[in-house]
Design brief:
Number of helices: 9
Distance between the termini: 40 Å
Radius of gyration: 17 Å
Strand content: 15-25%
Number of strands: 8
Helix content: 40-55%
């Protein structure tokens, strides 16, 4: 089984971290292929960058030449999953939905701890669109930009754990979801600080993707995610100027 794990930003060190986390969760015989888009922002922290990332991820997957069995979109709260589902005949798993759906097996309510406050509405909207918002107690921001998560890991853990603890104490969350692909690898340390289950979206997505492939299941093509209708598409991909 081969699973493509696609970073939504163009920072290769984050792709490497996501890839390591995905491989740690993969079963024997599962090949994890981390991919970095060839265009887009170095970090995704707003709507413009998120829509740009959606295009970049779709084009990155379309350009991949070898067979694959599933795709993981490794960006929290980002756009584009629906487009991938139209394009592909294999399962597509988004880490936002993977983390939230897994959290609901573990407790009555869950909270998401993400990077900047400006990303909170994007995550809330994606959870609502996916039908996963009813049991979401809160979405909290650590105040750290995505790229800062790599620069000072101790500060990152402290900021994330502080917001996770507040979610448990103030918002009555029973499970915490790490709301950024760049937070992969911080799970155990946040568990130590909070005492509640902590779900990393990348690892959850790997296990869900493996399960879907193992069950022989993929996206329904009867209506919503039917393949795009054949038609002329003007000036795409865009020509470099």
């Amino acid at each position: 089984m081969r699973i493509l794990v696609v970073n939504v930003n163009t920072t290769r060190s984050i792709t490497d971290a996501i890839g390591r986390q995905a491989k740690s969760a993969a079963s024997p015989g599962t090949e994890i292929v981390p991919l970095t888009p060839s265009f887009g922002a170095e970090s995704v922290e707003g709507n413009y960058e998120s829509y740009l990332a959606a295009l970049a991820v779709m084009e990155t997957v379309r350009a991949y030449q070898k067979p694959f069995d599933a795709v993981i979109q490794a960006g929290y709260g980002e756009h584009g999953r629906e487009g991938l589902q139209e394009l592909l005949d294999v399962p597509v798993v988004d880490i936002t939905e993977a983390a939230a759906s897994t959290a609901q097996f573990l407790g009555r309510t869950y909270s998401v701890v993400t990077s900047l406050d400006r990303t909170v509405p994007l995550i809330e909207e994606r959870l609502h669109a996916a039908g996963l918002s009813a049991r979401c107690a809160s979405v909290r921001a650590s105040g750290l930009p995505v790229l800062a998560l790599e620069q000072d890991e101790k500060a990152a853990v402290d900021a994330i754990a502080e917001q996770a603890a507040r979610a448990v104490e103030d918002d009555r969350a029973e499970v915490i979801c790490l709301g950024c692909g760049g937070m992969s690898g911080l799970t155990e340390r946040v568990v130590d600080r909070t005492g509640v289950p902590v779900v990393d979206g990348v690892t959850a997505a790997v296990k869900i993707a493996e399960s879907l492939v193992g069950l022989g299941l993929s996206t329904s093509k009867v209506r919503t995610y039917a393949p795009p209708r054949p038609k002329a598409v003007l000036n795409w991909p865009p020509v470099a100027r």
